[in-house]
Amino acid sequence: MTNTKKNLTGLTHDEVAKRQQQYGKNELTPQKKNSLIKSILHTLCEPMFLLLIVAAVIYFVLGEPRDGAIMLIFVVGIISIDVIQEWKTDKTLNALKDLSAPQITVIRDGKEQTIASAELVPGDLMLICEGVKIPADGVILRCADLCVDESSLTGEAEGVWKTSAENAEPSGDYWRRDYCYAGTLVTQGSATIRVEKTGVSTEYGKIGMGVASAPAEDTPLQKQTGKLVKTCAIIAGILFVLVGVFTWLNIPDHAFMDRLIESILSGVTLAMAMIPEEFPVILTVFLSMGAWRLAKKHSLVRKLPSVETLGAVSVLCVDKTGTITMNQMTVQRTWVASGDEHTLLETMGLGCETEAYDPMEKAMLRFCEENRISTEELFSGRFVTEYAFTNELKMMGHVWQKDGKLIIAAKGSPERILTICDLTDEQRKEAEERISALSSEGLRVIAIAAGYPQHENEVPASITDCRLTLRGLVGLADPPRESVKRDIAVCTRAGIRVVMITGDNGVTASAIAKKIGMPNSDHIITGDMLEKMTDQELREAVKDVSIFSRVIPEHKMRIVKAFKDNGEIVAMTGDGVNDAPALKYADIGIAMGKRGSEVSREAADLILMDDNFTTIVETVHDGRRIYDNIRKAVGYVFTIHIPIAFASLLAPFLGIAPTALLLLPLHVVLLEVLIDPTCSIVLERQPAETDIMEHRPRNPKEKLLTAKLLVKSVLQGLTIFAASFGAYFVTLGGNPEHAPVARAMGLAIIMLANLFLVQVNSSDQDYAYRSAARLAKDKVMWAVNIGTLALLAAVLYTPLAGFLKLSALSGRQLLIVCGLAAISVFWYEIIKLLKKRSARNRRVNE
């Protein structure tokens, strides 16, 4: 520790630029870029696109190059949409990756700034503190109580105490004590390091301990949708054969080759209609865009699968300090045991670091300033030595020489400080009563003690050997955030248990819990109690306990495991190096972005950039919204594919000539142009249901496509099919010459119904007009709606109609189309009305 600062200004902007060119990025493996050609080839391998190309080839073979060319234009168009969407998704994910990448504080141009660790260059001055994973090799210019875990390099589990280069003694060891190495962890203290080696030049890079990216695994949702697509593809294959056979039997007057091609074309049309290839698009877009929206709300998603898990969270294990509270510790009360308050405060200040980063020490020094004891006055003497704080000791001390006198200033846990103080039984009893009284107010109590040795050789080697005078107690409080009480109430209504895990004593934790309205705030398990419990006992205890006090990070793993063994889906917050295993074990690990260690951020699924409890609640809310919208999109895809598939299936059975079918391959492709953006863009933007946080968490084992959703989709699909195919069939009247007008009627009904379907299915409860009103100012929604109407006008009333074998509709026909499309979809609003009345009656009866 030092009480003088060196004038360190770091590299200039121009020096950094030159060195980045010379040394490259501080990475062990360069990031790979996705190839555009690979993206296109990957898209072309999808069953849908293979069918489209087959259909285009058949048109060319039939001697209709115009239709084949139009088909290929559609193929290029849809591939472009998919590739652009994939590019946007990659861009979003890369942006998220950049945001959540390891960061480090450096001094550049004389100012402190936070940069991505990959941007470090030799010569940079980096500032490290407890919990940081060191990103480069460098020499220590100055340090305070610096201990580093170098086990990832040396295999030695014991922490290494470091010293600055100017104080280092010559040593023949390979691993230097005045040097820090990439990949090692700061377990205590702080330091300023001058970077000497980066990337593969570091010791970490040399011995090949590069961190490889985890292999991409399909999420439960992806597996479910994959099964759905395969099932639909198998059904499509069977129906392809059946339709082909029926078409063959329907046209015995055609030449053999024409008959064969027409039969294949009918089968291809049905297969195209049956395969819901939008499912992978839905998952990719919804999860990545959901992650991007969460990032805007200060919640960075490091692992996309966690987005789908968020909606199922049933237990939130949160730290008290900084998450539930404001992380702005202030001195609230003092009690003087001996001497006067000035002596108590001066001793308290001398027991703090000169460059304090601990919130309590900052509060103590700020309180000294408020009481006219400046830091310059406090630290004007000569620093002699220190007693470092450890988790076992729970106390620390500094030895100063001021005005020719030595003073030992100690502070720490009252239980531990009292053991090194000379107290009578009466004094001890009074101190313990004061400790209890302050703790019952929800204050963090710190004891302050002092000693005055005559000579430096009389200063004990260990703080436990000191005999001190108790100066008094300091009560500190970190007040709850204003919004936490409301957030707790939201979680309770949503069926989510909030569990407080803290290093504070139980009385303090309980006082805070009562202030914020936490259920079961009187039920507490301490770390000591937890140590004595078996796993079975802990599983039973956590069923009604919401506060765990005096808990060390190692206990968190057991707490999370107990909840998970009880069938809960657990989200857990953490910020320390030792929290990483528990974060990894939880269903959703949430690291603190501001005060969290680099290691905890690497182990987490989410990073809270503002360390705010409200952000966690909003994240769960958004997780539920994302999952709901994925489910709505899947239901929509099933619904809109039913009229397309049934039209392709029924026509051959009714003996309709292949040239007079409602939907030719061209028209299926045209509808795909509408369906893709509707399911991947429009439904992703839908706001959450108004009561989304009033339901219990969903069962994570629940299937994406439930029986209820399937029935709804089938009914909606069949009504749209009945309206479109009925209008087509009546208009056709058995005369193939009427096919263009009949086809135009049926196709227009499907296109308009698609537009109405989004509004009706935007909410399971709210009526369509309310859903439309919520998105009335959304430019994307307007673009899609206007685009759909413009596309319909283009295919009916421009030369494009002839290419697509359609005919313009009269005003009367257009009115019939609009009416039938509306009726085929808006009937579901009556179902919503009946559901609301039923729910209202049920509440009245209860």
CATH superfamily of the largest domain: Calcium-transporting ATPase, transmembrane domain
Main beta sheet strand tally, sense and closure:
8 strands, mixed
Q: Please identify the top-level CATH class of the largest domain.
A: Mainly Alpha
Strand order of the largest sheet: 8-21-20-19-9-16-18-17
Alpha-beta content class = alpha/beta
Can you tell me the CATH topology of the largest domain?
Answer: Calcium-transporting ATPase, transmembrane domain
**How many individual β-strands?**
21
- Radius of gyration equals 35 Å
How many domains is the backbone divided into? Answer: 4
Q: Could you explain how this protein is built, in words?
A:
- This protein is α/β, with parallel strands linked by helices and 846 residues long.
- It has 4 domains: 10-211, Distorted Sandwich (Calcium-transporting ATPase, cytoplasmic transduction domain A); 220-293 and 619-691 and 698-845, Calcium-transporting ATPase, transmembrane domain (Up-down Bundle), CATH 1.20.1110.10; 299-325 and 481-611, Rossmann fold, CATH 3.40.50.1000; 344-473, Calcium-transporting ATPase, cytoplasmic domain N, CATH 3.40.1110.
- Helices cover 51% and strands 15% of the residues.
- The protein contains 32 helices and 21 strands.
- The protein has an 8-stranded mixed beta sheet, sandwiched between helices. Strands 1, 2, 3, 4, 5, 6 and 7 form a 7-stranded antiparallel beta sheet that branches.
- β11 (382-387) and β12 form a beta hairpin.
- α4 (65-100) runs parallel beside α9 (278-296), α7 (220-250) packs parallel to α24 and α24 packs antiparallel against α25 (665-682).
- It is elongated and about 120 Å long.
- The chain starts with 12 loop residues before the first helix and ends with a helix.
- The relative contact order is 0.09.
- The model is unreliable at 1-6 and 208-217 (pLDDT under 50).
